[in-house]
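ok so for the tutorial part 2 we go from a plain amino acid sequence to predicted structure tokens. step 1 is just haveing the sequence, like this:
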Amino acid sequence: MAPEMGAMFLSLILSRYIFCQIKSYIIQKLPKYFYIANISLRIVHLYFDFF
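step 2 — the prediction. this is what the tokens look like for a chain of 51 residues:
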């Protein structure tokens, strides 16, 4: 295997790994953001119900 091929293969694996890490991190953080968005939406709905 040529060195360039090895380097390409390694960078591909590395980028795939980093992508998976970021994705799992985002998925872990999402519920909190959904919760916050839900609350703010309810506040907006209450606000518009008054006016």
